Amino acid sequence: MEGIKDRVAIVGMGCTKFGERWDVGLDDLAIEAAYEAYEDAGIDPKDVQACWFGTVTAPAIGIGGTHAANPLKLDRVPVTRVENWCATGHEALRNACFAVASGMYNVVLALGMEKLKDTGFPGLGTGRGMGPVLEARRTSPGSFALIATRYFHTYGLSPEEGKAVIGKIAVKNHYNGSLSPKAHFHNKITLEQVLKAPIIAWPLGLFDCCGNSDGAAAAILVPAKQAKKFRHDPVYIKGIGMSFDSLLPHTRPKFDWLTWNSLVDSSQQAYEQACIRKPREDIDIAVVHDCFTITELIIYENFGFSARGRAKEDIEAGFFELGGGLPVNTDGGLKCFGHPIGASGLRMTYEVYKQIQGKAQSPERQLKDVKLGLSHTFGGPPQVSAVAILGRETG
Amino acid sequence: MIGIIACGAYIPLWRLPRDAIAAAWGRQSLGGERSVANNDEDTVTMAVEAVFDCLAGVSRDTVDGLYFASTTSPFREKQCAALAAAAADLKTEIITADYSNSLRSSTNALRAALDAVSSGSARSMLVVASDCRLAYPRSDYEQGFGDAAAAFLIGNTSTPIATFEAHYSISNEMYDVWRLDKDTYVQSWEDRFVVEKGYIENMQKAVSSLLKKEKLSPGSINKAIFYAPNPRVQHQLARALGFDVQKQIQDLLFDRMGVCGCAHAMLMLAVALEEAKADDILLLASYGDGSDAFLLKVTGAAKSKGNKHGVMGYLSSKKLLPSYEKYLSYRGLLEPQPGEPFRLFPSASASWRERNSSIRLHGSKCKNCGLVTFPIQRVCYGCQSKDNYSEVRLSDRRGAIFTFSLDNLAGRSDDPVIPQIVIESEMDNTRIYCMMTDCAPNEIKIGMPVEMTFRRIYEGASMYNYFWKCRPPR
Questions:
Q1: What pTM was estimated for this model as a whole?
Q2: What is the domain range of residue B86?
């Protein structure tokens, strides 16, 4: 089996301002992200040969490729809509990457977007895909809080101790978000604020939960061999992993709520493709799925960034902060940048792409000498995980 | 011998002190408290609880039918008995029927069950009575009514708890207590008419006729179980019939739960059986558009089998509702701000396909590797065997909390915190995901024992949708 490493490059990316974008709709978001990507890649919109576009929320019958084709006037271009819970943005990237690697297309647009702020309520609503009766009153925070309760119990942390550990993740991501002009939130917060915030789904409080935002992000993918024709600093795809757990965590027999096969497998697949043996040392930046603070913590442990049960020590040592050994969510993460579901995988990839190029939008959070970076989304109840590893050079 | 094989009861956890109702309206309190069904309960869910209490330790194999009796069915057209029978995991080759529209519907169903067993058309019949009547806010009935259910398994057996010796029924046409098809609240005529020409005259006639027929006097009855709208009227009847109010009359339990509609006579009978000794003669009389009277003889058979709560068990397990407003909201009489909207709407056909998982609470047990999974999985999670499983009932198994969260977004505004629970069932450690009800959320802990309870989950697509929740053991 031939791997994906160094076969495809990203030569342009775009990302909208995230937040409560009352003034724009889904189509405007598509235009904002795609045109920035076109400009960044130095291509004409007519150069796009195929498009994979991801969005999660849609009317019951579906929306197909309409919200990419219509606003962008993708004339006689195949447009495919993808959806895979919160991994939707990565799914668009992954399919676009494979399309280029197959030799079928030379210039492909991957687009992810979501308009969450037209529903009239602040959350994602109640109930998901498990059946209307079985989960009539489930919400996302209610599901992810199940992880926190079990994690605290397993490692002997009192709720207060546990909340203080994950609360530091929120403080870090808010600090990073304060340096991200396109992020939804720019406020720095203290641990005291986190711990005193209203409870959303115990043990998770307001600052443990990510923003509900509008936004879109886009990437232009080309064959790696042609990348330098587009720009001097293309970013190469080193590995793409994706894995699905075979049953909902809620009903999975004997599941410990700590070791998530989809997280472990998707990261290992990507590491193997990218020839990464020691992720904690080899990776220079990771932008991961911090939909809730506890999610970022279990990602540390399932991705091999921290030893099992030891994330607390790394968090307290500042290992994942901007100046730490492995900076995580340097743009504020879902927590602060916001989480327009279908856009997030590409927004994270945008941050890695810009950091590798040394072009982070705000110089204060530009990391030094970024060679390898990882972006990641984790979605569903949760059940699916997608990882992309990007690199500055081939080889 | 034709008699009672088993009986069970259900009284909701919540009680409202009558002082709270009185204070809300500036009226005199009748004292004590009344039972109040939770906002996820109705007469079907309460009936299912009573049936489980009745069937604890009893085989379902010989149950050939279920009669459901109520004046407050959640459906105008759709059978509650069929739903209750499915939730109780009875087989499908049975007779089911709803008895309704009268406070006497419970004993109407009892008579019919006795006839079915006597004729040999059924080996045993479940009779379950459940009521949740609504009284006008501020009325005396509001303080006097309660919510509860009782279930009896009637059959031909060598070891009944009690045998039925005789019965007598009369029918009576009058407007005394009624509800029109469009009414929410119980209506009644002037109290003196209702009591004297309705209750006393009919009860007296049925009871005295039964005693006369059996050549018995009031003195030969050990306990007279008289339904009544309140203790005063019950005592008035007892005196009129020549019974000793202190020694012979089964307590109405008015102070502890209120009068629970058509279920009440059955609940009193259940208590009388809990307290009776061998060879006691019991007299049961119900009222509503006439009267049904029964004579029972208690045997020495063991009264309690399995993990049974009974009336007294459920009465002693209670929590006080914090306010009268909460009662109004729980009963749908006051509409609080709605919570977050549901994203998914139920489908009758999808719910029907999934009925064995969601109504019967069946899991699948793989015939190859033995793994039990809930809900039913056609392809085994453990060994990928396809369509190679048997169904197992999880509803009467206890479990322990594996993990949980307290969701502030998912709730109603009158119950804003929804405990989301992952249970590890005692049945092969099967995981069940559900909500917890009848609990104090701040007392929930990992490892805490839970039992399953059938509840109304939500209303959507013009349907009441039922599923199971867990609760702390009562």
A1: 0.96
A2: 2-330
